[in-house]
Structure formats: structure tokens, C-alpha cells
Specification:
Elements: H1 15-27, E1 32-35, E2 44-47, E3 50-53, E4 55-57, E5 61-69, H2 74-85, E6 93-102
Parallel strand pairs: 5-6
Antiparallel strand pairs: 1-5, 2-3, 4-5
């Protein structure tokens, strides 16, 4: 059981910035089709009218909700995301939640309008 304090509302000292950088880094991974807020919207970071969808920052962990590209082994997806995120999160544990898979022929997956897709 985790001792972490949930931080659903990011402090002005940089957690929203950290969440945004993590989101951008994850979106650049070839195995990732999109970020996902999760079935219950649990993967988000908030700050006064803004939010970063797909990344939840807590004191000791980072939760990342993703939509995987079809055909990519989960071990490859996990390796890509961890390699992209580990240098950014200051030793926090990284939890990756695969919420869906984008299959061939699917429209481009986006979880929320307005969340830029990094190319």
C-alpha cells in the first residue's frame, strides 16, 4: 500500500509543468497512439482551469494512461515510456496503464480535444 499523498490539484511550484513535459515525452514514443484520462478520469493533473490529461503526478509516483498502437508488445511500450519519463520524474515510480489499443483502420485516437499530439 502506498503512503503517497494524492495531488489531484498541482501546486504552482512546477507539477503542472512536470505533467506537461511527461505528457509530451510519452506522446513521442512510437508505441503510443494517445494519452488517456482513464475509464474514471483518474489520469489527470489540474491547475486553476488547466489540466494535463493522461498523466497523474503524485508525491512518490507518476501514473500514465495510454492508448497503445496495435502490434507493439507491452514490454516494448513499457520500455519506451520508462526511458522517456524516468529522467524527468525525480525518482518517482512510474505506473503505465494501457487503457485501449488503436487497431489498423481506427480513426486517430485522441482523448481530449485541445491536447496537442507531439509529432
Amino acid at each position: 500500500m502506498s503512503n503517497s499523498l494524492a495531488l489531484p490539484y498541482a501546486d504552482p511550484d512546477g507539477l503542472i509543468g512536470l505533467a506537461a513535459v511527461v505528457a509530451t515525452s510519452v506522446q513521442r514514443c512510437p508505441a503510443i497512439a494517445a494519452l488517456s484520462a482513464g475509464r474514471f478520469g483518474q489520469f489527470r493533473t489540474y491547475l486553476a482551469g488547466r489540466e494535463v490529461v493522461g498523466v497523474g503526478i503524485q508525491v512518490d509516483q507518476v501514473d500514465i494512461g495510454v492508448v497503445a498502437r496495435y502490434g507493439v508488445p507491452i514490454s516494448d511500450l513499457s520500455g519506451q515510456v520508462r526511458a522517456a519519463v524516468a529522467p524527468l520524474v525525480g525518482g518517482r515510480s512510474i505506473n503505465i496503464w494501457v487503457e485501449d489499443v488503436q487497431t489498423p483502420g481506427d480513426r486517430t485516437v485522441t482523448d481530449r480535444p485541445g491536447l496537442p499530439r507531439a509529432e
